[in-house]
């Protein structure tokens, strides 16, 4: 993965528009957040291999970026995206890596299901 | 304390590296005594957060990296029977409870261990740890009392000492510290931050690392019936 280049990432988002795609969306503070800080309210969400179709995908802002996907009946978005790559299987992998290199958010788009 | 000979030790943890942090020295000592050790590792730690910045992995490439690290760590510990159980990181607690008990029961039936090492339910912090410990405890509880394997349980929640007291089983693993370090180093994607040589380590951190490298402690899980 490399740091987000807006025009390159925008082109990749466009290339998946109006197709049935599988997404992986994840936000996390890690499972140990409340162990190290008992006052920390740990929350996160995860969805993998949900099949969607979006008509418009946009990457916005300075890093960390926001990426939003507009669907016929709703939205998908991720906040905090810093890195992206089109992997060897043609999947668009986007991630938000914090200052210590830990993943905080991931949004991935693929025409084939992700592995389990 | 000196380790007693065992017929077979079954180690059940959910993530590659759980075994190295908690038990690499103990496992190496058992292997040096000729005790067979089977490690059932439930997931590949697919949800590990450390990808680096700049990144060395993606969410999708991490599992294969951790699979290789796990195999290398097992070599360092002398584990010849590694089972990768194919569950997904952070989903273990959502699996069907009976399926989880059966997974452990099948392993026990096949291996006939005299000792199982796993997490202590209620004191294991991570939801996958908790679910793993629960499944092991339930599987063993269903075995007739006289033929149950013993359970050495790892607890590290902040309230563990308050609730359970000082762990009664303490293994001095300093004689195999090099092997424990090698096992931890094998899990490089997870442990690079602590294994790298640094001049800037605080006294508190150094003490904590020293105790990780030299001492492994367990509670003996006991049943009421």
Automatic annotation (TrEMBL), chain A:
<dbReference type="Pfam" id="PF08830">
    <property type="entry name" value="DUF1806"/>
</dbReference>
<protein>
    <submittedName>
        <fullName>Uncharacterized protein DUF1806</fullName>
    </submittedName>
</protein>
<dbReference type="InterPro" id="IPR036492">
    <property type="entry name" value="YojF_sf"/>
</dbReference>
<dbReference type="InterPro" id="IPR014934">
    <property type="entry name" value="DUF1806"/>
</dbReference>
Automatic annotation (TrEMBL), chain B:
<dbReference type="InterPro" id="IPR024078">
    <property type="entry name" value="LmbE-like_dom_sf"/>
</dbReference>
<dbReference type="GO" id="GO:0016811">
    <property type="term" value="F:hydrolase activity, acting on carbon-nitrogen (but not peptide) bonds, in linear amides"/>
</dbReference>
<protein>
    <submittedName>
        <fullName>Bacillithiol biosynthesis deacetylase BshB2</fullName>
    </submittedName>
</protein>
<dbReference type="InterPro" id="IPR023841">
    <property type="entry name" value="BshB2"/>
</dbReference>
<dbReference type="InterPro" id="IPR003737">
    <property type="entry name" value="GlcNAc_PI_deacetylase-related"/>
</dbReference>
<dbReference type="Pfam" id="PF02585">
    <property type="entry name" value="PIG-L"/>
</dbReference>
